[in-house]
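REVIEWER CHECKLIST
Item 1: Sequence provided? yes
Item 2: Single chain? yes
Item 3: Sequence as submitted:
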Amino acid sequence: MKILLISAASLFLSLGGAAVAQTTTVVVPGEVKTYVLKQETPSVTFEGDVAVGTALPDTVEIHTIPDQPDYGYVVINKKRVLVNPKTRAVIEVVQ
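Item 4: Structure as written out by the authors:
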Protein backbone atom coordinates (compact mmCIF):
# COMPACT_ATOMS: atom_id res chain seq x y z
CA MET A 1 0.00 0.00 0.00
CA LYS A 2 2.86 2.35 0.86
CA ILE A 3 4.49 1.77 -2.54
CA LEU A 4 1.20 2.46 -4.30
CA LEU A 5 0.80 5.81 -2.53
CA ILE A 6 4.37 6.85 -3.32
CA SER A 7 3.90 5.90 -6.97
CA ALA A 8 0.61 7.79 -7.18
CA ALA A 9 2.15 10.86 -5.58
CA SER A 10 5.10 10.76 -7.97
CA LEU A 11 2.80 10.48 -10.97
CA PHE A 12 0.64 13.35 -9.74
CA LEU A 13 3.63 15.63 -9.17
CA SER A 14 5.19 14.86 -12.53
CA LEU A 15 1.93 15.50 -14.41
CA GLY A 16 1.28 18.66 -12.43
CA GLY A 17 4.72 20.01 -13.33
CA ALA A 18 4.13 19.34 -17.02
CA ALA A 19 0.81 21.18 -16.90
CA VAL A 20 2.40 24.23 -15.29
CA ALA A 21 5.19 24.30 -17.88
CA GLN A 22 2.66 24.35 -20.72
CA THR A 23 0.65 27.29 -19.40
CA THR A 24 3.35 29.97 -19.60
CA THR A 25 1.79 33.24 -20.68
CA VAL A 26 3.68 36.04 -22.40
CA VAL A 27 2.23 39.51 -21.96
CA VAL A 28 2.96 41.44 -25.14
CA PRO A 29 3.05 45.25 -24.88
CA GLY A 30 0.16 46.96 -26.64
CA GLU A 31 2.48 49.08 -28.78
CA VAL A 32 3.97 45.91 -30.26
CA LYS A 33 0.57 44.68 -31.44
CA THR A 34 -0.34 48.15 -32.73
CA TYR A 35 2.89 48.36 -34.73
CA VAL A 36 2.44 44.90 -36.25
CA LEU A 37 -1.18 45.55 -37.23
CA LYS A 38 -0.19 48.74 -39.09
CA GLN A 39 2.54 47.18 -41.22
CA GLU A 40 2.03 46.37 -44.90
CA THR A 41 3.98 43.12 -45.05
CA PRO A 42 3.39 40.41 -47.66
CA SER A 43 2.12 37.08 -46.43
CA VAL A 44 4.23 33.94 -46.72
CA THR A 45 2.85 30.44 -47.10
CA PHE A 46 3.56 27.96 -44.31
CA GLU A 47 2.56 24.33 -44.40
CA GLY A 48 1.08 23.14 -41.12
CA ASP A 49 -0.52 24.81 -38.14
CA VAL A 50 0.76 28.11 -36.85
CA ALA A 51 0.19 28.05 -33.11
CA VAL A 52 1.86 29.40 -30.00
CA GLY A 53 5.13 27.55 -29.53
CA THR A 54 5.58 26.60 -33.19
CA ALA A 55 9.19 27.11 -34.24
CA LEU A 56 9.48 28.75 -37.64
CA PRO A 57 12.10 27.48 -40.11
CA ASP A 58 15.08 29.60 -41.13
CA THR A 59 13.47 30.15 -44.53
CA VAL A 60 10.82 32.40 -42.95
CA GLU A 61 12.04 36.01 -42.63
CA ILE A 62 11.26 37.53 -39.23
CA HIS A 63 10.73 41.30 -39.33
CA THR A 64 12.07 43.45 -36.51
CA ILE A 65 10.08 45.87 -34.40
CA PRO A 66 11.81 49.20 -33.57
CA ASP A 67 12.88 49.46 -29.91
CA GLN A 68 11.49 45.97 -29.18
CA PRO A 69 14.38 43.46 -29.46
CA ASP A 70 12.37 40.69 -27.76
CA TYR A 71 9.70 40.67 -30.45
CA GLY A 72 9.55 40.12 -34.17
CA TYR A 73 6.68 39.46 -36.54
CA VAL A 74 5.74 37.58 -39.66
CA VAL A 75 2.60 37.45 -41.77
CA ILE A 76 1.96 33.76 -42.35
CA ASN A 77 -1.02 32.43 -44.29
CA LYS A 78 -2.53 35.95 -44.05
CA LYS A 79 -2.27 35.95 -40.21
CA ARG A 80 -0.05 38.33 -38.29
CA VAL A 81 2.15 36.39 -35.90
CA LEU A 82 4.41 37.64 -33.11
CA VAL A 83 7.66 35.71 -32.83
CA ASN A 84 10.58 35.50 -30.42
CA PRO A 85 13.44 36.39 -32.81
CA LYS A 86 16.01 34.46 -30.75
CA THR A 87 14.16 31.13 -30.69
CA ARG A 88 11.96 31.69 -33.77
CA ALA A 89 9.01 30.43 -31.69
CA VAL A 90 5.52 31.85 -32.18
CA ILE A 91 4.47 33.96 -29.17
CA GLU A 92 0.99 34.96 -30.32
CA VAL A 93 -1.24 34.90 -33.39
CA VAL A 94 -2.53 38.48 -33.52
CA GLN A 95 -4.88 38.29 -36.51
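Item 5: Key structural point noted by reviewer: Helices lie at 2-22, 30-38.
Item 6: Recommendation: ____
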